[in-house]
Amino acid sequence: MNEPYFREAEERFCELLKAYLPYEDAYQELYKTEVNNLPLYGYGVKGFTLSMIEAIMNITNNKGDLKLVEGALAIGREILGKPVELLEDVESTLKSLNGDYRLVMATKGDLLDQERKLLKSGLAKYFHHIEIMSNKNKEDFQKLINHLDCAPEEFMMVGNSLKSDILPVLQIGGNAVYVPYHITWEHEKIDHHITHDHFHQVETIKEILPFLKSQSYLTKETLK
Amino acid sequence: MNEPYFREAEERFCELLKAYLPYEDAYQELYKTEVNNLPLYGYGVKGFTLSMIEAIMNITNNKGDLKLVEGALAIGREILGKPVELLEDVESTLKSLNGDYRLVMATKGDLLDQERKLLKSGLAKYFHHIEIMSNKNKEDFQKLINHLDCAPEEFMMVGNSLKSDILPVLQIGGNAVYVPYHITWEHEKIDHHITHDHFHQVETIKEILPFLKSQSYLTKETLK
After folding, report:
1. Which of A74, A84, A164, B193 could form a disulfide with A136 if both were Cys (CB 3.0 to 4.6 A apart)?
2. Which UniProt keywords apply (chains A, B) (predicted)?
3. Residue A122: which residues within 8 A CB-CB, separation 6 or more?
């Protein structure tokens, strides 16, 4: 879970630029640059760092000090070196599911960075397959389940982004369980509620186990 | 094939910095920064751009103009927007092999950028599988052939980098065919000759077809 590191990085970026712009305006400028650059750079720390640098150009009208850019490079490098902190109950839940279900990790971001995080996390051994995706649109999930040779009704996504993990999976006929996290990036927020037969919300990851048992249509036989 | 675009980008970088350093010194500084950053950023245009920016800091002692950084961002963005130019006979060779052999593309670089290039190239349809790798060490190829459920002796890599495409594949017991290209990045060069039973060199990609026919140990049955 990189979210807190990115939010912390944004705060440091605003701090860096405080001589030029109030905190909130610097944040908005960075956010705008990041979202504009998504089609070009995709997700991940490298694109985020390039966006910070581009925002420095815009905020200082190309008149800022190179030290600002040095600061942005350091912020990016720091995120890449952060330890991986597992959320509570993630490992025990994966352990319980392992063997009964075919577990796949689907994540987006920089290839090398995501591989490194997975290695650091020690979770790779629970997964049948790791998919590092450039995007999480419905076409991307469709490609994933084709590749896994899995029917949509046998696929269940568990995730903390309604926009990226839940909606596209419901759109292709899959099942989705939302585990809210207290920090969500602006760009991952949606402004409506989801009601759908195949949508379910839990408070913590370990509720997945009793939930799966309670759902007759999600037996070990279908979800594997 | 991105090589010429990267070399052109390096020239533009040296041109940008000519007030500070002679061409060759600027190139060496950039190269050193790129190689140092490979374990952190991996391969691809985004890491290359971040390295250009870091090299600007070093070359100008943090005293340069932000316009230099703007120039580096523009060089990076330009590589990402370049058209994909196919080398001669690549498509017709893939077409001829398709159906008889299981074709896999193995490439390294930024995930989104590589996906975009593949889409632009129109070549995706010939491949059974696309593997975008963070590295091309022997462990990475071992993981690839495990994933493909392919024995090393049934695997043949065709590539233009002796260091990344050929040596690691020979090390894991696979077959390798080298198709030299007139531009090779410094970091991909090796300083010795390869002699190995499973190593072969051709001048152009289309020689792959008669080569495969001539090799009894590489029949359609083994290489699929």
Report:
1. A164
2. Hydrolase
3. A91
